[in-house]
UniProtKB/TrEMBL annotation:
One of its GO terms (biological process) is glutathione metabolic process. This is Hydantoinase A. Residues 219-503 form the Hydantoinase A/oxoprolinase domain. It comes from Rhodococcus wratislaviensis NBRC 100605. GO terms for molecular function: 5-oxoprolinase (ATP-hydrolyzing) activity.
Amino acid sequence: MDQQSETGVSGEASARDGGVRVAVDTGGTFTDIAVSRPDGTVFVWKVSSSPASPDDAVIAGVLEALGELGESPTQIERFVHGTTVATNALITRTGGRVGLVTTAGFRDLLAIGYQSRPHLYDPNSRRPAALVPAELTWEVGERLAADGSELRAIDEAAVRALAAEIEAADVDVVVVSLLNAYVDNSHEHQVADVLRELSVAPSVIAATDVSAEMREFERTSTAVLNGYVQPKVGSYLERLENRLVELQVPARLWVMQSNGGLISGRTARDQSVRTLLSGLAGGVIGAARWAGQLGLDQVVSFDIGGTSTDIALIRAGQPDEMTAGEIEGYPLRMPAVDVHTIGAGGGSIAWRDSGGGLRVGPHSAGATPGPICYGRGGEDITVTDAHLLLGRLGESLLGGRLSLDRPPAEARLRTLAADLGLDPDKAADGVLRVITATMARGVRKVSVERGIDIRDCTLMAFGGAGPLHASDLVRELGLRAAVIPPHPGIASAMGMLDAPIRSDFVASVPTNDATATAQIAPVLDELVTRAEGFVAQESGDSGAASVIEKLVDLRYLGQSYELTIAWQSSPEQLRQQFDRAHRERYGFDDPHARLEIVAARCSATIPVPATVEVNQDMAPQVPAPVAKRAVFFDGAWHDTPIYRRTELPTEVTINGPLIAEQLDTTIVVAPDQACRIDEHGFLHITPEDKA
């Protein structure tokens, strides 16, 4: 199933004459391709994904898109890819066979973890099993003190004797993570070098080469995650690069990483853990760029797919970031876009709980069998079915390529409604109200809980289902407005087109006293030197100057969490900046508390050249609707006009209710709301009294 569309969008053009930029985002159902041309237009294309061999869909989609444009692979000047290979390997537990070498006495580090349940009041809650089983964990006799001084030297003969046992275990990757190696990694590298020399496994990883931060559990977990996904990611990217070479693509392969920047294919093969949130980051980076383009100060990025909703906060055109988090229950110590994911999407299933209440999700019908109306064997009412039965969706999706089967969904809704003691209309409306409440909690998580007044925020809604729910979220949360980008269904690929090349560096510090800035400065200078080396190596075809930023992790004495802020050589300015950031994030500051420094950081970014702006043509007036149908709003049916989005005029306010349809999504505007399309093609939904 292929789909295509074309538009002129501000900021989406190629910077050099003659070449094209290509961004490819691989999803579970579709692979999205965006091609940016020198004249400022963007051409988009979708093909069905090939989960068994994702590169097949990537190559097929790119060739089809270029064929439609009359372009050749030899004209690609930039090739960017967002991949879910690492994420899927972890979710499905199909990663590599990983062994762990650690300090004597610490073999149970991963099993013990935090010694706490994920959910305090749920006695059945369990953490996921460690990715390295006990039988694949080995100990070496060595020890460094917390300050890096050597308490027990490495017995190299013992390591060589242990190597035979490790080799016999037939592992794909060996991770070496030794106690306090973040202070001095010489022991860790010594063991890793011996194991590499003896070829005990195809890959041997020193944990400090992946994450050089304190906290042994998180550091080891991050390195193990890297080892677990590396075999699949490495082999996939190697195949893709070889196929691009066969097509004579002159551009390097750039891969979207979790922090919203790009790394080379080579780096992604070595440090595959950086791609665990690759798919999520592209959409957020795109939303951040669009927020800056539209002059929106506080934006909530809102990406809804079939099974989940990904939410992020964007302030002044920059998404919030985190330096630590969890994925699938495993700690991850790696800079990443701060995305909050909830189990709410178009395929979320409606069900009746033991108390007789209506619940929706988190379990999902997924792509197969999918919602009942897709006609693929689904048997449970989903959010998509509710949209169809309330008139929000028409008879088909994807430009008529996917027909929606209404009768079986109606029959199943009657059964659910009877169980709930409701009439079918109210039951379907209840499904949307419940999922809206779930999504609203997710939005509050990244806004209200961070000291942001939600009434000052704009929702940037994308993904295939985002525009269906934007109207409801504006009403539920009292948001200022919702904005729908020109191609919300392929927002991640669009976001990747102009993503910068980026790498992050971190090091421990010789003192935890934040006032001792003279001792911390040399550490930052060393990180800057490493960052400059990265820029020299990776700048490649970017053609733009780099930006290197010095950062530090700070906290009040006794806290177990840190805030990352820009470095200031003045202790007083550093303190003022931290107090202000803490007050903004948590609602208070403590000017009398001692300030601790935990780590030094450096971020190197290589932006792409400025792009040409292309404005959308002005349409003269509101066209006649292509159809009308009954749509359920606020307990009643309304005769609602249906428009094609591409035919709506720019800078003309249209009052709801209305439905705007396009190839990759459907946009709902409620009776008490209005919408307009700006000169760049973004559709704005606002309360009628604010229009």
